[in-house]
């Protein structure tokens, strides 16, 4: 009989019900929920998604509600806009950087304005010098002021009129009028949202007629994203900002369609790859629904979406890892269909980025486009059961939060009443707990730290002054790595003062095979706090370990070994170590039912996965005299 080739049909996959029965059997009584992964914002990721979770999208790309992007062919015609952010502080140096970057692949310019962290553009002449090497007729220029949101717009228009001449129809970019972001930063005493938008209304109307590619208004999530907002809150508060702009501009005589077409949205992309893709897709969905409900025409429902890599996820320690973080975040932004993307230089947390930092940031996107060919697929996320379902879940959660904000009177009132600040405090507290317990690990900082790394030096920025007036406090930018980095900073100061790092004597009990996994973990944890581990093993007895400890030049001893050895060995080892001058004896692992006995034997603290490692390391610093 002739051989009959086998096909996929001969091996049908198990049904979902069959898969679930097999999983339940393997779980051996544990609930199915243990396979779910919690997300911030009250959402959960399932272990498996099927067509029943998310049917194939019915609308193609380029059609309302624009979940799949605003262009019918996605990025396949020219790709997304590679945008670079600039914040100074030196206007002349930034002008040179603009020239160099535009010659090497940058396509758009995003200017962060206002001292101390932004460019100090005081007048038209300064802005003209800044843009001296920028071909304005073909380079989109976006402003993001943090203080006076109207004056920079007039300055840019004056420069454009002088340099670009009559080619207004070709101009692209945004003027950055975003009074709610300014309200969040400075308080109600300095920002009147309604009055600002009323003053901007004639400009909105004129630009739509004379320069339709130049958007007057900006909706930036930066104040909240940098201060620790979850994806749900960032999404909801950004849409709420757009809603308030629609409402106020309509009162000033601008139709919803015109107002929507005048807005540029700018969202941050954090470290959770797939949820961030879903967030940007959900943003377009929600905005389309909002504009449609406001009476806006279908073409005005398309969101102009800029994505920036998040500042909160970047680290000062081992900053080279920021290159990987920026790559993943840029990748997510492109897959989600962002119209333009800014990749922050890896050295941005250290101060003013240098040429190398800007080049690596720029080349990240060039490689994604020209070598990874991400511009050759329209909506690469489309049809993924996982991403389609997650997009819907994020949109529904953000819509619920949007309704809550509207019930408070809108996002301006929510800010002025302190509601936004209160929510940010709650989310930062929860995230900080996850960081301290390493449920949210940070490579190079709380995981796999490089204790002897060579520091990367950059020109430091001026300190951010206290802002906010009236009844609210402004959201404070925070990076998730700051707590653990403070421990490394203290270790550096100790090293500068004493010539050595703070040290721990590690007594590893049992055979190498028995203690290696745990002792390696402990050495890693100590390095997170800037404490150098001095490891020893193979002791004849406790007294032998104590003799070695006496020569180690430290007051901290850490005992690491298999749990089975602890009940019998710990009392003798702890007593011997303390007799030789150990002020603190820590033990690796959970004490379990033996905690009372171990503490009675003299154990001071326990180091184990799931503990508040920041607080434990802070305690060790205190006991070692590290300030």
From TrEMBL:
Q: Which GO terms describe its molecular function?
A: cobalamin binding; metal ion binding; methylmalonyl-CoA mutase activity
Tell me a GO biological process for this protein. propionate metabolic process, methylmalonyl pathway
Cofactor(s) needed by this chain: adenosylcob(III)alamin
Stored InterPro entries:
Cbl-dep_enz_cat (IPR016176), Cobalamin-bd_sf (IPR036724), MeMalonylCoA_mutase_a/b_cat (IPR006099)
| GO CC term (a single one) | cytoplasm
What keywords would UniProt list here?
Cobalamin, Cobalt, Isomerase
Isomerase: present as a keyword of the record?
yes
Record-linked CDD domains: MM_CoA_mutase_beta
Residue span(s) of domain Methylmalonyl-CoA mutase alpha/beta chain catalytic: 42-455
Key word Hydrolase present in the record? no
Similarity-based family? Belongs to the methylmalonyl-CoA mutase family.
Give the protein's recorded name.
Methylmalonyl-CoA mutase
Specify the species.
Answer: Corallococcus exiguus
């Amino acid at each position: 009989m002739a051989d009959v080739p086998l096909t996929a049909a001969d091996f049908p996959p198990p049904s979902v019900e069959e898969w679930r029965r097999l999983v339940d059997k393997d779980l051996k009584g544990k609930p199915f929920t243990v396979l779910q992964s919690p997300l911030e914002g009250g959402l959960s990721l399932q272990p498996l998604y099927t067509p029943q979770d998310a049917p194939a999208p019915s609308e193609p790309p380029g059609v309302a509600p624009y979940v799949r992007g605003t262009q019918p062919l996605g990025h396949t015609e020219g790709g997304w806009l590679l945008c670079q952010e600039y914040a100074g502080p030196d206007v002349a140096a930034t002008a040179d950087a603009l020239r160099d970057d535009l010659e090497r692949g940058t396509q758009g310019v995003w200017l962060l304005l206002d001292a101390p962290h932004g460019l100090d553009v005081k007048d038209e002449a300064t802005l003209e010098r800044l843009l001296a090497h920028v071909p304005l007729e073909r380079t989109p220029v976006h402003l993001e002021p943090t203080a006076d949101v109207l004056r920079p717009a007039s300055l840019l228009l004056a420069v454009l009129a002088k340099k670009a001449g009559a080619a207004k129809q070709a101009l692209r970019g945004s003027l950055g009028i975003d009074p709610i972001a300014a309200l969040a930063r400075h308080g109600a005493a300095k920002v009147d949202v309604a009055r600002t938008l009323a003053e901007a209304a004639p400009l909105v109307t004129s630009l739509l007629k004379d320069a339709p590619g130049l958007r007057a208004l900006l909706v930036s999530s930066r104040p909240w994203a940098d201060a620790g907002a979850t994806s749900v809150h960032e999404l909801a508060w950004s849409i709420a900002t757009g809603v308030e702009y629609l409402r106020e501009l309509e009162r000033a005589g601008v139709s919803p369609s015109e107002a929507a077409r005048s807005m540029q949205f700018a969202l941050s992309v954090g470290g959770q790859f797939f949820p961030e893709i879903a967030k940007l897709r959900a943003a377009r969905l929600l905005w389309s629904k909002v504009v449609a409900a406001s009476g806006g025409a279908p073409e005005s429902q398309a969101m102009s979406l800029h994505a920036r890599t998040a500042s909160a996820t970047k680290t000062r320690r081992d900053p080279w890892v920021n290159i990987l973080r920026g790559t993943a975040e840029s990748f997510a932004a492109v897959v989600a269909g962002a119209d333009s993307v800014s990749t922050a230089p890896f050295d941005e947390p250290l101060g003013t980025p240098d040429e190398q930092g800007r080049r690596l940031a720029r080349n990240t996107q060039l490689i994604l486009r020209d070598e990874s060919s991400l511009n050759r697929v329209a909506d690469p996320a489309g049809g993924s059961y996982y991403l389609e379902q997650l997009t819907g879940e994020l949109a529904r959660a953000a819509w619920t939060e949007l309704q809550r904000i509207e019930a408070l009177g809108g996002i301006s009132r929510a800010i002025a009443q302190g509601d936004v600040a209160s929510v940010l405090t709650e989310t930062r507290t929860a995230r900080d707990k996850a960081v301290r317990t390493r449920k949210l690990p940070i490579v190079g900082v709380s995981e796999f730290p490089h204790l002897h790394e060579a520091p990367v030096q950059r020109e430091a920025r001026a300190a951010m002054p206290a802002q906010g007036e009236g009844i609210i406090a402004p959201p404070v930018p925070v990076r998730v790595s700051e707590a653990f980095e403070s421990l490394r900073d203290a270790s550096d100061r100790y090293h500068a003062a004493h010539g050595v790092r703070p040290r721990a004597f590690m007594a590893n009990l049992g055979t190498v095979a028995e203690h290696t996994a745990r002792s390696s973990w402990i050495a890693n944890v100590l390095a997170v706090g800037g404490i150098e581990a001095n490891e020893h093993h193979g002791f004849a007895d406790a007294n032998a370990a104590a003799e070695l400890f006496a020569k180690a030049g430290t007051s901290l001893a850490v005992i690491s070994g298999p749990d089975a050895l602890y009940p019998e060995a710990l009392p003798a080892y702890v007593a011997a170590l303390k007799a030789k001058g150990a002020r603190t004896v820590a033990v690796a692992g959970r004490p379990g039912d033996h905690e009372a006995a171990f503490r009675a034997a003299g154990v001071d603290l326990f180091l184990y996965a799931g503990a508040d490692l920041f607080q434990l390391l802070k305690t060790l610093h205190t006991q070692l005299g590290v300030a």
